[in-house]
Predict the structure.
Amino acid sequence: LGGQPQAGGNRAPPAKAKPANEMQVATLKPGEVSFALDVAPVLIESCLPCHGGFDTESGFSLASFPRLLRGGDSGAAIEPGTSGESLLVKKIRGTGIDGQRMPLGKAPLASDVIARIAKWIDEGARLDVAAAGGDLRAIASAGRALHLSDEELAAVRRDAAREYWQRFLPDETPEVMDRDGLTVIGNLPAARLEAIASLAASAWGDLGQRLAKGASARGAAAPSPVKGGIAVYAFAKSYDFSEFWLVRHRTDRPRGVTSTAGSAGDVVYAAVVASDSLLDGADQKQSDLGYTIAAELGAAVFLVRGSPAWFAEGAGRVLAADLVPKAPLARAARSDLPKALEKVQAA
């Protein structure tokens, strides 16, 4: 360990595998260690509290995969291809180092966990799942979405959605309902949330049929539009939604915005202010709330698939106008479309 000479004569040390590109994504063979699924979650839980930003202990940041490879004040933390020479492995083993074993002040990592990290380094310290900027949390989330089954991922997403609520309304215990791949969470009376859950489930099923490339034509059940499902956050008041927006975007909610879609780690969400006025009319499915939920669910689907926000928002509204055609907002959108096209052509 620790890069000490090995017995066995003058045998040359193993060649170090240097990644050609820090963010190059590798295709793993069966049995190889996944950074996204096996390594990143350990680093997030055990190392990010002290090494998660840009002004960190010993100048060593795990804020992103490139920064992990670069190391800190003591040099590179990882020597791809040779775990025994990698400072990261020495630190978590507590051998051949100056200073203390890591993670500092916590129980040592389990031997099998250390072995997986070492094996990952020996295999070249490769990145197997891409994420924007190489953020470790985003990589781990993307890895779970890629590798877990739909049922396994749904359980992860449900737990994450409940935990995320505590970040923006920690003093309120929400009602929670699961409906056909959706986790509906809100600070509304149970009967009211039940109505919203029914609207969301209906829109979700319609979206699945519409986006399923021929599944409905063959008579097969449409798959969920998003693996593991989506959380629907329903807020009683606009100021509740404002708290959500502030936590999610770190800025005040723009005036007039009462719904949104996006993702935060393992949570993929559609969020709406569920005011009484949006449910006006005998047919709640064709209400403005039904339209808004369908639009945000549609936007979330396109965002997960990598579409830019402007496209996802527009596509969600187009789908909603088709699925909820009698809603006043849908009728207004159709009547405004010719005027919008005229402006585009004039420009």
Q: What stands out?
A: Residues 1-21 have pLDDT under 50 and may be disordered. The radius of gyration is 25 Å. The chain is about 45% helix and 10% strand. The CA atoms of residues 255 and 322 lie 27 Å apart.
